[in-house]
Design goal:
With about 325 residues, the chain is α/β, with parallel strands linked by helices. It has helices at about 15-25, 45, 65-70, 90-115, 145-165, 185-195, 215-225, 245-255, 270-275, 280-290, 295-300, 310-330, and strands at about 5-10, 30-35, 50-55, 75-80, 115-120, 135, 170-175, 175-180, 210, 235, 290-295. Helix 1 (about 15-25) packs across helix 7. The protein is globular.
Amino acid sequence: MRKPTGSVLITGANGFVGRHLTRRLVSQNIPLKLMVREAARLPAAWRNNSNITVQELGDLGACADGELADALAGVDAIVHLAGISASRGLDLHEYQKQNAEVTERLCLQAENSGVSAFIYMSSIFAVSGSTHAGIISDETSAEPKTEYGRSKLAGELYVNKLARKGIFSVSLRPPLVIAPDAGGNWKQLMRLSASGIPLPFASLDNRRTYCGIETLVDAIMVLVLQNWPASKSGSYALAERGAVSLADTLRLLRSGMSVPRRLYHFPSFVFGLLSGVPGLGARLQSLAGDCEVDACRFYETFEFEPENELADLIYRCGKEYAYKQRLETEEMM
């Protein structure tokens, strides 16, 4: 592992992945620049850390090029996490502005500033939708199904150009990232598991791969803190090894939570009825379909191996989620 010759700049340090990555880098005394919308949202310990420079630039889409250039002064590596996540109600223009155009402008400034590494947080949605027949690998043709996915793929194209300039540049394509403090679909699934209500999913035998936040952070650390040639640049799927069904995911979560499993075999039409419930149906469909990811190319290229088994990660998510819920309940009493 090497020490960067300059700072590591993180965009979106206030976000879910950004918080976890920043904590890890801080623990290793790596000089950081945190590019955020609102500095006040950062932990006070980070704002008062002499090893951290905070750049409050507001909306990156509205930043002047000069502001971006100033922020990159003295930066050795960039981890670009900022952007708009998959959400309903946004049009292609907004996704393209925040996910693609901001990435393009940041890449241009990176090229001019002497940055040696650029890591971009893309998504498996740049390749496919929330479900996919067959296994997704780096050989799978990129055919995004959503405006979000198309904007992420567009961002990757700008990152790819950096490699041709001799800059090591990687776009990471994780599936759903899981952790006890994750949001979105994973948070809803943990809440559903914690409720203990009977669920009609015992018969579901789909195959789905996730990426643990620890694996994602470990991978970024390997990319940023080691010297890699530009020839290893590219877009890489990143996920845990193996896949689990929705039924097994719920069993593991509830085991970790010490909640009775209560999974039952119901006729398929019951699942169909639940899938039609507003706000619940789309989430169930996205978790009950297949989305198996093979990240072997990343493992082999960067001599990387996840530290935990997928089943253990899911179990620990349930255990830590339940523990935090108990603490919150006790504090309210």
